[in-house]
Amino acid sequence: MHRFISRRLAPACVAVAALTLAGAATGQPAPSAAAGKIKVGFMLPYTGTYAALGTAIENGFRMYVQEQGGRLGGREVEYFKVDDESDPAKAPENANKLVKRDQVDVVVGTVHSGVQMGIVKVAKESNTLLIIPNAGADEATGPLCGPNIFRSSFSNWQPGYAMGQVVAERGMKRVVTLTWKYAAGEQSVRGFKEAFEAKGGKIVKELSLPFPNVEFQAQITEIASLKPDAVFVFFAGGGAVKFVKDWAAAGLKDKIPLYASGFLTDGTLEAQGAAAQGLETTLHYADGLQNPRDKQFRLNYAKAYKLQPDVYAVQGYDAAQMLAAGASAVKGDMSRKADVYKAIAAARIDSPRGTFTLSRAHNPVQDFYLRKVEGRENKVSGIAVKALADPARGCRL
Ligand code: PHB
Q1: Beta bridge partners of 227
Q2: Is the distance from CB of 204 to CB of 174 less than 8 angstroms?
Q3: Rounded CA separation 261/164 (Å)
Q4: Is this prediction's pTM over 0.85?
């Protein structure tokens, strides 16, 4: 577990300590020091199968702040970090390191849906602003939605639903699904199934393996013997690289059409190489969007990090844009929580993916692109579903 504090100045510490004491004496929570820094707490995976995703999110976030001269709402930004290891069991404790120990103004986290549930609980209990820069856990913008909980990414239901429509419209009838057995995979499959079965398709078998296992042989063998019209999968990060290679090595690439949410091929193409060529996926970002905002974003990202950006970098960048909307509405006074939340909820985010707004449950209402792998790119080939909103079942806001 690592924790990094950048440029923490002694006078700022004294000021914060004084305010904390003042808060304790009055029984009121300590207000943020208006003249101090905005404290951003990254709770992200920096190790394990999702490590690259955490880094891309942080890179994107920092880049937006840099573009604003290092300030949001007129205040400098200070970063705190916790490696959540994609381990749900440690999530409440890790979130409390940022909320209780570091007293951050906002938690930016995380990637893994199971870990997200622990962060949501801590954020709700403490009324801390939470911006989710990836994890799709449907609950966070469903039954567990809250005034302080926002997402810059997607709900698990969304990309699955978009792909369910595409596969049904292609006339596929019998589909097998395969995922890691945890919320992200299960909820993606549920979204896929909802759209696919509404248009007359049938899921003939739902296969899974524990997260983050990458021994896919038994499932691949079973799929080969089931001979479905197509397969829908959810995998991401290091596991996605391995699955795509194993699928091709088993000789199924040209035999059974493979469809997935775009995480299967985002940020992974260099490692997947020939095995990924031609794969089609749905996601809220793609290569070749040709909008000026995206072009500038990609140029800046490549220059800053010597890397091509991916969907995770975009989500991090937009998490910072959402924070900026809240911080500038209160001129940096993050203690005005209700006003911060109101401003973020009403924001139009000028994202590299295309402009989006937030639903009443605070989840992006956004286009889902159909993409096809060509070389090292997930080339956009169309819009699978326009302005898709998660149904936000169970959210009362
Ligand atoms: C999730 O756990 O919600 C998750 C993880 C990685 C992804 C997408 C979703 O790429």
Answers
A1: none
A2: yes
A3: 10
A4: yes
Ligand 1 center to 19 CA (angstroms) = 38
Ligand 1 site, residue 235, Cβ cutoff 6 A: no
Handedness of CA 144, 147, 149, 155 (dihedral sign): positive
| Alpha carbons 171 and 188: distance in angstroms, whole number | 20
Kindly state if the Cβ of 327 falls inside 6 Å of ligand 1: no
Give the three-class secondary structure for 195.
helix
Q: Which residues lie across from 75 on neighbouring strands?
A: 72
Q: Which amino acid is at 328?
A: S
Distance, in Å, from the CA atom of 147 to the CA atom of 324, rounded to the nearest integer, reads 17
51-104 per-position pLDDT tens digit: 999 999 999 999 999 999 999 999 999 999 999 999 999 999 999 999 999 999
- Give the model confidence (pLDDT) of 123-167 as tens digits: 999 999 999 999 999 999 999 999 999 999 999 999 999 999 999
Instruction: Give the Cα separation of 347 and 356 in Å (integer).
Output: 9
Q: Distance from CA of residue 260 to its chain's centroid?
A: 16
> Buried (b) or exposed (e) across 136-156, using 16+ Cβ within 10 A?
bbbbbbbebbbbbbbbbbbbb
Residue 155 Cα, ligand 1 centroid: separation in angstroms? 9
**Contact in structure between 175 and 393 (CB atoms under 8 Å):** no
**How far does the centroid of ligand 1 lie from the alpha carbon of residue 150, in Å?**
16
Long-range contacts of 100-105 (CB under 8 A, 24+ apart): 100/126, 102/5, 102/39, 102/41, 103/16, 103/20, 103/30, 103/39, 104/39, 104/40, 104/41, 104/80, 104/128, 105/32, 105/38, 105/39, 105/40, 105/129, 105/334
Residue nearest to atom 9 of ligand 1 (CA): 135
Rounded CA-CA distance 155/138 in Å is 5
Q: Which amino acid type is present at position 135?
A: A
- Cβ pair 269, 83 in contact under 8 A: no
